[in-house]
Amino acid sequence: MSMLSGKHGLIVGVANKRSISWAIAQAAAAAGARLALTYPSERLEENVRELAATLDNPLIAPCDVASDQQIADLAMTLDREFGGLDFLVHGASFAPADALHNPFVETSRESFRIALDVSTYSLVGLTRAMVPLMEKRGGGSVLTLTYLGSDRVFPNYNVMGVAKAALESTVRYLASDLGPKSIRVNAISAGAIKTLAASGIGGFSAILQVYRDRAPLRRSVDASEVADAAIFLLGPASRAVTGEVLMVDAGFHAIGL
Ligand code: NAD
Description:
Layout: E1 8-12, H1 20-30, E2 34-39, H2 42-52, E3 59-62, H3 68-82, E4 87-90, H4 97-101, H5 109-135, E5 140-146, H6 159-178, E6 183-190, H7 196-199, H8 204-214, H9 223-234, E7 245-248
Parallel strand pairs: 1-2, 1-4, 2-3, 4-5, 5-6, 6-7
Nicotinamide-adenine-dinucleotide binds next to α1, β5 and α7.
């Protein structure tokens, strides 16, 4: 596969080898792209550097998506090193632990703010910063990761569900704004996958079992399957697709009971 050959991409959201963003990074590199990977804090820097060392000539940079300054610095670094950008993968999400353990009705104003800032607003901030770089390439593709908890209630998903609902709406508004610049904006709604972020959701193993019992394919998905769909959305095969939420969830969303 060389669907992304000659392209430069930014991947935000690699924490460890289980991260969906890491699977996407590997697939994008295999498809020929040169990548920049970010880490949000010094604590995760080494992890990201170790993983990135397996890629060809990656760029590693800090980016806490809650910081406008760090996003601006990242855009400057990418402009200098890549001279533009073809795609952005946004795989950052966070909610304070109390908001994922207490009943949703008890969500504090501060936890709500943090969850929506890091998990949702960050797509707006990052995309805006990357628009000038994508314009240099005559367009681009932005991809984020969402979950069915945006639309339906899942135990303990709580404020993340609200953040994902806002994220999916954000995808549509950004797609509308940026379409005239040939910048496409889409999301993949992935089935449940055991990752670091998922381990913060109480009872996550029970959710996985429901997929095995009820999803049309009688299983959930793995990160490499999400990555394959991501390559489609990042590359030229999806050139007429924008404002879309693509379900990559073994069909679970189609089931009522
Ligand atoms: P993950 O924990 O590997 O990834 C989450 C990432 O968010 C981490 O890399 C973390 O460093 C990053 N992050 C958190 N706060 C940040 C900040 N302030 N600045 C920059 N980065 C920050 O888990 P994952 O499951 O791979 O999650 C990736 C995306 O996929 C998330 O948006 C998640 O909601 C979504 N998703 C996950 C599942 C699942 O079942 N695992 C299903 C559907 C969607």
